[in-house]
Amino acid sequence: MPHTNTIEISSDQPTTTTAMSFRDQLHALYAPHQKPGHLSFTYGTAGFRTLASTLDSVVFTVGILASLRSKYLNGQTIGIMITASHNPPQDNGIKLIDPQGEMLEASWEAYATKLANLGTEEEVFAEVERLAQNLGIDLNDGVSGNVIIARDSRESGLALTKATIDGLKTMGTKVTDYQLLTTPELHYLVKCINTQGAYGEVSEVGYYKKLSTAFRNIYENFVQSDSKIQITIDAANGIGGPKAETLFTEYLSQYVDFQLVNNQYQDPQALNVGSGADFVKTNQKLPNNITPEPLKLYASFDGDADRVVFYYVDSNSVFKLLDGDKIATLLAGFFKDLVSKSPAKLSESCQIGVVQTAYANGSSTNHITDVLQVPVVCTPTGVKHLHHEAAKFDIGVYFEANGHGTVLFSESLLSLLQTIEPSTPQEQRSIQTLIEISNLINQTVGDAISDLLTVLIVLSIKQWTPDNWDESYTDLPNRLAKVIVPDRHVFKTINAERQLTSPKGLQLQIDDAVSKYNGGRSFVRASGTEDAVRVYAEAASKSECEELSKEVCELVKSSVGL
Ligand code: 16G
Ligand code: ZN
């Protein structure tokens, strides 16, 4: 288990000269972190993400910005995660985590982008002064900000951590380096610190304890089985592997028989290669190194373990994917049932909702609205958008089809659960299960390990095999294609990315194409993480789906003169 380094940088700084001191520190530290002239960077859907070798100057400025953010929020702790998630080994990235464990507030993304693109020490200094003044941050108050930092298992992670810490040093920020963590572990720790431990103990052990205690309580009380749960996990050769291993071996070995494959996290070149949630979802096939047994459940994490997808092969050895949409329907149905079996005071007031993106398979949306009778909201791609919508429900289930997601419980529901009096054993059971699941699921962000435990326990309670789960609905055939265009920024969308407003006229052509296919649906959006445009298509049959996809790709190309 990695130890942590607490680096207190500025305790001996004279408090009255912090502004000067920022200037001096910047001067002392800036030179090796100067931005190469020809590069430009954007704080995108999930922070900065690109080739690791180009990121040094960016992370240095993120260190400065995180310091400002913490000072702006009266010293609350900000998280910095160095990861490029499911991207290939040569990439890396950095993102900021706000005090309650949520993604950085959107208005600050623009500040991050601005700072990252400045080319000289003078420009950086002037911009920081300007920002501080506009935001009412006193650079002279002698109060330092607080930051915790961690990284995934990429080779470039350590050097980028050091460069980030140099950025933090310019402002005398207190920083604790948690070294190797999954992204959701860091989100958890940020929230624990800022809630003074109310969300959980401020340590990795605290994270394991919180999850395993909830899992054990549910299992002991509500699972009727004399055999252990079985699961095989493809860890994408990322940091989720050793973390899951610790959790299952040290805390849950009585209940779960687990097997880890693609667990070479010490070999950074293997990260996400032929493995992981993105590989499985995109290629709709098994990762390397799994020889499947029919009807057994498998799961794949991504490189920083904030997303998970499940799959199995049926009795005819056909591969079946259980993606984020299937997780959302499983959980929404489970909660709907629990709530309906709760005391009237709860069942009559509790609003359950599911949040999806345009990538959700049409069948899943129909199933949730028509069969489960739970409302569905659609948001733009990216966890932060889904998270904010989910927070509007008492139980907000949000999942992207790619496996990013979690469940949020409202404060009012959580306090009602603590005080409500059950009048039957069934009501008692429902209340208890809801309380425990609210502890089992990581409410700060999608978490592969916590989602995995939640799915395993729900399947065990329901005594469902993977094919019982899969049977709930059948996905419409779908295809996600990529078109490389000269400038993806001309593709502008409205209506949660489902309609284009630019290039002019293209949406009408797409609508026209879609209308020719049974059950057809298609949308086009610019990627937030790659220099490309994505084209999604679905239709009643595989051949219609392929044709629709091709047709829309052609329309996209000709709209930009290709
Ligand atoms: C990022 C997002 C993910 C989204 C993906 C879309 C977070 C933590 N991650 O990985 O949710 O699905 O981008 O990528 O928000 P795209 O814009 O390239 O299609
Ligand atoms: Zn990820």
From TrEMBL:
It comes from Wickerhamomyces pijperi. Its cofactor is Mg(2+). It comes from the Eukaryota. CDD domains: PGM3. One of its GO terms (molecular function) is phosphoacetylglucosamine mutase activity. Substrate binds at residues 400-402, 525-529, 534. The active site is at 85 (phosphoserine intermediate). Residues 503-554 form the Alpha-D-phosphohexomutase C-terminal domain. This is Phosphoacetylglucosamine mutase. Pathway: Nucleotide-sugar biosynthesis; UDP-N-acetyl-alpha-D-glucosamine biosynthesis; N-acetyl-alpha-D-glucosamine 1-phosphate from alpha-D-glucosamine 6-phosphate (route I): step 2/2. Keywords: Carbohydrate metabolism, Cell wall biogenesis/degradation, Isomerase, Magnesium, Metal-binding, Phosphoprotein. Residues 77-107, 128-197 form the Alpha-D-phosphohexomutase alpha/beta/alpha domain. Mg(2+) binds at residues 85, 302, 304, 306. It is an enzyme of class 5 (isomerase). Binds 1 Mg(2+) ion per subunit. Catalyzes the conversion of GlcNAc-6-P into GlcNAc-1-P during the synthesis of uridine diphosphate/UDP-GlcNAc, which is a biosynthetic precursor of chitin and also supplies the amino sugars for N-linked oligosaccharides of glycoproteins.
